[in-house]
Amino acid sequence: MSETLYPAAAIAVVALVTCALRALPFALFGSRPLPKTMRYLSRALPPAIMTVLVLYCLRNTSFAVFPFGIPEVASCLLVVLLQAFRRNMYLSIIAGTVCYMVLLRVL
Amino acid sequence: MRELRFAVKHTLPIFFTYLFIGIAFGMLMIDAGYGVLLSVLSALFIYAGSMQLVMVPMMASGASLLTLALMTAFINARHIFYGIGFIESFRKMGWRRFYMIFALTDETYSILCSVRYNDELDPNRAAFLIAMLNHLYWIFGCLIGACAGRFLPFDMRGIEFSATAFFLVVVVEQWRQYRSKLPFLAAVVCALALALLLGREYFLVPTLAACLAALLLLRRPIERKEELEHE
Q1: Distance of residue B81 Cα from the nearest chain A Cα, in angstroms
Q2: ipTM of the complex
Q3: Cβ of B156: how many Cβ atoms within 10 Å?
Q4: Is the pLDDT of residue B201 over 50?
Q5: CB-hemisphere CA count at 13 Å for A96?
Q6: Is A55 close to B34, i.e. CB distance below 8 A?
Q7: Using CB atoms within 10 A of its CB, is residue A107 exposed (0-12), middle (13-18) or buried (19+)?
């Protein structure tokens, strides 16, 4: 494939596959009334998905070697405590990220 | 106008995440010899952070289109699960639903999961603006990275934690909202078990499938608890 066409084709392929995946549930259940099971899942699934996403983000934490996952654990703890007691999303996210970036450099 | 203000307020945390990850992508593209135009086109039409970052070295090594398609299916398969929660609410959005489906990234999904629209707002309009603002932030980040990445004087190592922190905030809010804690528990158990079994890089999609199965099995106790809440 020509030098100029290849990157454009590559981007098109990645875009189409991504969009097809996002559209799949809508294509399957698009126009029919939603079955009861799907309605249940649409409520029960989000907290499970978000929990899994958090764990996936933390997948590269290594507890066996220095700094033993301290930046991740401490920053996550800070986010959870701030969000639980102060309930200010911006404060939680900014404080957590700054804490992580600082610990990454000083440890 | 009210909806726009609401959307800006709720997407602000994502602005920073997308800006920095977008910059990282733009810089990678320029380093690999692809121009500003291709960086922006990727942001506009692909709009999937991790896959865009993986795509650059694959393109640079001349991976076949089929390999790219398979890799995309592998990395973005999690998106199949996101739509399930929005089938009914997107249906009410008319032509805008096509854009909503296209723009359903991890971050947009988590905002839409956690926002509560008050009575003064048109929820469809607000949701649409949330999705569009996030997309604009992403395009902006990729553009900045491609144009000016090498002149930025900061060491941004660790900024990607802002996405983790955001997801964690959503989980804390959901924890408050859901009477039944079984969905959280099922997710942790499935994730840890499958991470041990399959390794850190490969557990995501199997875990989401396992959660779906677990939630179907736990339907009765979860629904009983959740119904109490509505009474």
Answers
A1: 8
A2: 0.89
A3: 13
A4: yes
A5: 28
A6: no
A7: exposed
**In the block, residue with structure tokens 């600082």:** A102
- pLDDT band for A93, please (50, 70, 90 cuts): confident
Is there a contact between B42 and B52 (Cβ–Cβ < 8 Å)?
Answer: yes
Contact check, Cβ <8 Å, A18/B72? yes
Q: Which residues of B touch A71 (CB under 8 A)?
A: 158
| Amino acid in the structure at residue B189 | V
Please report, for chain B, the start and end positions of each structural domain, with discontinuous segments joined by +. Answer: 2-157, 178-231
- B21 CB-near residues (< 8 Å, 6+ apart): B49, B53, B141, B160, B163
The answer to whether B119 and B2 have CB atoms below 8 angstroms apart is: no
pLDDT classification of A88: cutoffs 50, 70, 90: confident
∠ CA A22-B112-B217, nearest 5°, is 70
Smallest CA-to-CA distance from B176 within A107, A50, A32, A91 is with A50
Residues of B in contact with A86 (CB under 8 A): none
- Residue the block writes with tokens 């405590």: A81
Distance (Å, whole) CA A73 – CA B140: 32
- Chain A CB contacts of B195 under 8 Å are 55, 59
Helix A89-106 with B161-177: angle, nearest 10 deg: 140
Mind telling me how many Å the CA of B133 is from chain A's nearest CA? 17
Helix (H) or strand (E) holding B14: helix B2-31
Q: Which DSSP letter does residue B85 get?
A: G
Q: Is B97 on the interface with A (CB under 8 A)?
A: yes
Distance CA A69, CA A107 (A): 11
Residue of B87, B107, B184 for testing the chain A interface, max A β-carbons within 10 Å: B87
- Residue A18 contacts residue B48 (beta carbons within 8 Å): yes
Separation CA B12–CA A89 (nearest Å):
10
Strand locations in A1-107 (E): none
